[in-house]
Amino acid sequence: MQLLLAALIVLPLLGAGAALLPVPPGLRGRDPDQAVLRHGVTVTGAVLLGTLVLAAAFDHGDPARMQATSDISWIPALGVRLHVGLDGISLPLFVLTALLTFLCAVYSYFRMPPGPGAKGFVAFLLVLETGTLATFAALDLVLFFLAFEMVLIPMYFLIARWGGAGRGPAAWKFILYTLLGSVLMLLGFLLIGLRAGTFDMVALAEAHGAGLSHSTQFLAVLAIGLGFAVKTPMWPLHSWLPDAHTAAPTAGSVLLAGVLLKMGTYGLVRIALPVTPDGMHTLAPYLGAFAVVGILYGSLACLALVRQGAGGDLKRLIAYSSVGHMGFVLLGISTLTATGVNGALFANVAHGLITGLLFFLVGALKERVGSTDLDRLAGAGGAALYGRTPRIGALIAFAAVASLGLPGLAGFWGEMLAMLGAYHPADGLHRPLYLTFLALAGLGTLLTAAYLLLIVRRVCMGDTPVPATGGQDRPAPAVLPDLRGHEFAAWSPLVALTLLAGLWPAVLLHLTDPAVQNLLPGVAR
User: Fold this and answer.
1) How far apart are CA 417 and CA 408, in angstroms?
2) Is residue 352 part of a domain?
């Protein structure tokens, strides 16, 4: 399995190089663009297949142990190693990355976004996959940092070259914010590595902060936390996200929401919790406070957008909703409990599935209607989606109720566990403060339900019902193409997994809980 994991990380990078050849190897098409798009589907499909084999061979009886590990000396002078492996925390995100990238490749094969051409698009998509997979598998701080940064350039170009209106400023805002966060994160990593004498994440986690003074841990987690907060993004460092999502092509939005936003919260769990436990304990209440502000801010911003009338943009609204949903992830982490951290990890995966589906749906609507304006999508007050594209309308309603946390769907468990963690935070944390956080987060769930139900009413049902034959003063609803075959292929796995995770949460929790318990002894008091 060691060789398989290494091959899965390297294969997309090799595929990116092959995509830039005059004629990519493998399947042929009617023209060079179709050939390279088929190449992208083939490479991402092979990665997904290998990932499923890796997941099947994973020892589910011992998910706290790092498996399929490789450890090779890379830069001996600095003690940096090519150390990779997976446990119950990283495996679900590793599989999610492979799945979403493959679905984006399939969707883009049939609906390539307008831009310079397919070669660069496929190459950047595959480089992005390599960087993300390497981030979730890296077990060395320097390797983690390099993989973390590897995703920035391809995402910048996906937005800047294949995005929509405002793509230039949005891409620059994305790269400047994230690079600033990266500088802080690197300083924190260097402080830990130099003081502890190793960059090995497994050894550092097993030490649980031994050898690092409280002041060192505090400064390190402050720098690392700010770097991860930009990537998450945490309020008030979120302002790059709505512009990036609004301008990005469909595949870029799906991967940005479904995978890239998870890298910051994953880093907090993988690095900050076990390596700097004293620093995390000091900063946890502040993290919780920013988390609940983000929950309320994201919900209120969405309510304002859905109620503002002309100019409300569905894609921007979903981007703001991510700020609120990731607030629940941060709240769970801030509790420093197994319940809260498990909830955060569950919410990470659930958000990737549900928001990925939402951005796929919005991309399909933009292709049909030519806009993501709420009034245009609602048929200017009458011809809503249930009348024009009933299957897509039904999928939007499904994704909306999953996103608001309806029991039985994936969005429920993560938010519930995060709030349960706030009800009983770790020893030494101020419980009345966390009960306040719990109350505010509960208010956030009500606001989330309000704006998502308003979206369903406005976009799917229309403001007022219109007879199928049209009224005296209104024309009959325009008929749009409903669910197509390639869209069904790209979206049905996300629907199925949203149902599976909601009805059988143990499919994730039995993986994450033993690994979380292994990370937490240095934090709990």
Assistant:
1) 14
2) yes
CB atoms within 10 A of CB 285: 16
How far apart CA 160 and CA 173 sit, in angstroms, is 11
Nearest Cα neighbor of 104 from 162, 148, 149 is 162
**Nearest Cα residue to 122 out of 201, 238, 14, 16:** 16
> Amino acid identity, residue 44?
T
Cβ-Cβ contacts under 8 Å for 484 (sequence gap 6 or more) = 110
Sign of CA dihedral 229, 233, 238, 240: positive
CA 230 to chain centre: 13
The DSSP secondary structure of 187-231, one letter per residue, reads HHHHHHHHHHT--BHHHHHHHTTTT--HHHHHHHHHHHHHHHHHH
Which residues touch 5 (CB under 8 Å, ≥6 apart)? 54, 68, 70, 84, 85, 86, 137
Give domain status of residue 356, yes or no.
yes
**DSSP letters for 62-105:** -TTS-EEEEEEEEEGGGTEEEEEEE-TTHHHHHHHHHHHHHHHH
Q: What are phi and psi of 234, to 5 degrees?
A: -100, 140
Distance CA(346)–CA(381), nearest Å, equals: 38
Tell me if 179 is assigned to some domain.
Answer: no
Per-residue pLDDT of the chain (525 residues; tens, 9 = 90+): 788 999 999 999 999 998 888 777 666 667 777 888 889 999 999 999 999 999 999 998 889 899 988 888 888 877 888 899 999 999 999 999 999 999 999 999 988 888 788 889 999 999 999 999 999 999 999 999 999 989 989 999 999 898 887 888 888 888 888 888 888 899 999 999 888 888 999 999 888 888 888 899 999 999 998 988 888 888 888 888 888 888 888 899 999 988 998 998 999 999 999 999 999 999 999 999 999 999 999 999 888 887 755 456 788 888 888 888 899 999 999 999 999 999 999 999 999 999 999 999 988 888 887 777 777 776 544 456 777 778 888 899 999 999 988 899 998 999 999 999 999 998 888 889 999 999 999 999 999 998 888 888 887 776 544 444 444 444 444 567 777 888 888 889 999 999 999 999 999 999 999 999 988 864 443
- Which of 247, 256, 196 is CA-nearest to residue 220? 196
Contacts 24+ apart (CB under 8 A), 89-92: 89/266, 89/269, 89/270, 89/345, 89/511, 89/512, 89/515, 89/516, 89/519, 90/136, 90/137, 90/266, 90/270, 91/55, 91/58, 91/63, 91/511, 92/345, 92/349, 92/508, 92/511, 92/512
Q: Encoding tokens for residue 55?
A: 């997941």
Query: Containing domain of residue 428, as a range?
Result: 282-525
Within a domain: residue 413? yes
Q: How many domains does the chain have?
A: 1
State in Å, rounded, how far the first CA of the chain is from the last one.
Answer: 37
How many other C-beta atoms lie within 10 A of the C-beta of residue 514?
19
